Amino acid sequence: MTDCFEKLLELLGGICDLRAAEALLDWDQQVCLPAAAAEGRARQLAAISGVIHERSTSAALGRLLDQLEASCFADDSFEAALVRRCRMNFEKSRRVPAKLVAATALTTGEAHGAWLKAREANDYAILAPHLAKIIELKREYAALFKVKHPYDALLDNYEPGMTTAELKRVFTPLCREQTKLIKAAALPAGEPEPDFMVADYSSSKQLRISEMVVRAMRYDFTRGRMDLTEHPFTTTLGPDDVRITTAVDRKLPVSCLLSTMHECGHALYEQGIDPICFHTPLADGASFGFHESQSRLWENQIGRSTAFWRWLYPYFKKAFPRQLSGVSQKRFLRTINSVRRTFVRTEADEATYNLHIMVRYELEVALFDGKIEAADLVTEWNRRMKKYLGIVPPDDRQGVLQDIHWPLGDFGYFPTYALGNLLAAQIFDAAKKAMPQLERSIARGEFAPLVDFLRENIHQYGARYTGTELLKHLTGSSRIDINPYLEYLRKNYLPNA
Ligand SMILES: [Zn+2]
To answer: Domain spans of the chain?
Structure first.
């Protein structure tokens, strides 16, 4: 049996190397690809994903899994977890014809170029036909699985086991409560930002501060790097190469910092995985929602907190003395935590953020219910923005064209952002319970206790346990609970309620 297991590791190692090469092509596409090279890159990505698919569905892998399942690994052993995960991936990939995989890779590669052009021209019509093709391919994909709702098949790729029905249970009351909350907490429309928030903040200084913070968060630069991109993301190109990217805007003093902390939260998860998982599919997060909980926790629970700014504000003020002259820490914090109804998800504050997700989640469900088509997205998008946030985007760039997910074919991904927010609140509550001194150490810029807690309870396991199992271990319940998050929001944004 050891022989069989060695063979499995060898096969999986090869697939992991191909995935790393695929991730590098994708990183390059998002960071530094010349505009004219988009078509060629789409072909290269399609070619490599074809080879990965072939290997991941090979008869040899199937035979190995059959043999290993018949052996008696202890249920909670590394070996058993690996075989379980492989079986899940294998069964899923095997159902999908190679032709569909290649067509999806090719179509999404071209759509990425079209998305950039559509944004430039501020015209959804340029993207719409590409999106229509992707939606068709994704409907075809969903039809391959026996699920209650076609959208379940897509959700499962990001949040294993998650269903449209369960999302409805969580999101319906969440949406109701958050809509109520922002009605009470949001600043009136048109309320101007204070002068210091629209001042000019040097890009290089913003980047230097962001780098100082991620170093304090114990991001390991010997096993990663940080680059600039338009749409920040984190990617893993192998066990010792976890890269973060960031964007900087001279007019937005904290957006670079918070977005870098967000990506660093993802990277800490990957860098904290036990090396036993390396070169296998277990070198991954438990789920996208869990991954997102790690980024949200740093971006929001830490990055917007009084304790954190008690430490960082003196540095920040020293870097921007002219812009922040006469601005107290309290006023600065109140301002960066004000609630505003805005058009762009990535710039939304945490009180309105989930409502941006509700817009996308409802549209995705409607697309896979067959109730709407790609051509309806602008109208349907704007209608929901009006309903939940009370505002309608003035153009496509600030509306339906803002996200890269749909052109990449990532339908089913958005809900994991909202789940991440909910999980982050549950996890941070557990961390505070375990470490009553936590806020004091954060106020000194000491993040080691929190990183160690996350590493011990979440990161090290990689994908050995499901999100549900990790949640149960941490909080005693395996159910996603909206209350810790709502309580956190009410405490921060409705202090007098
Ligand atoms: Zn994220």
So the answer is: 2-149, 164-493
Contacts of 271 (CB under 8 A, 6+ apart): 219, 220, 223, 224, 242, 459
Residues at Cβ < 5 Å from ligand 1 ion: 295
Average pLDDT over residues 77-87: 94
Average pLDDT over residues 87-113: 90
Cβ pair 371, 379 in contact under 8 A: no
Q: How far is the CA of 8 from the centre of ligand 1 (A)?
A: 31
- Structure confidence at residue 260 (pLDDT): 97
For 338-393, the pLDDT digits (tens) are: 999 999 998 899 999 999 999 999 999 999 999 999 999 999 999 999 999 999 99
| pLDDT tens-digit map of 261-289 | 999 999 999 999 999 999 999 999 999 99
Pairing of strands 242-246, 226-228: parallel
Per the prediction, the chain carries an average pLDDT of 94
C-alpha 350 – ligand 1 centre gap (Å):
13
Element (H, E) at 228: strand 226-228
Check: CB of residue 110 under 8 Å from CB of residue 42. Answer: yes
Measured on CA atoms in the order 252, 194, 485, 444, is the torsion positive or negative? Answer: positive
3-class secondary structure, 202: coil
Q: What's phi and psi for 145, nearest 5 deg?
A: -115, 150
Distance 405 CA to ligand 1 centre (A): 12
Give me ligand 1 centre to Cα 285, in Å: 12
When pLDDT is averaged across residues 409-438 and rounded to a whole number, the result is: 97
Choose which CATH entry (3.90.1310.10, 3.20.20.60, 3.30.70.360, 1.10.1370.30) describes domain 164-493: 1.10.1370.30
Cα–Cα dist 289/159, whole Å: 7
- pLDDT on residue 373: 98
CA 39 to CA 43: how far, in whole Å?
A: 7
Alpha carbons within 13 angstroms on the beta-carbon side of residue 233 total 17
Alpha helices in 70-202 (DSSP H): 78-95, 98-121, 124-142, 150-155, 164-185
Reported pTM:
0.93
Query: How far apart are the CA of 292 and the centre of ligand 1, in A?
Result: 5
Active site residues: 263
**Distance from the CA of 266 to the center of ligand 1, in angstroms?**
7
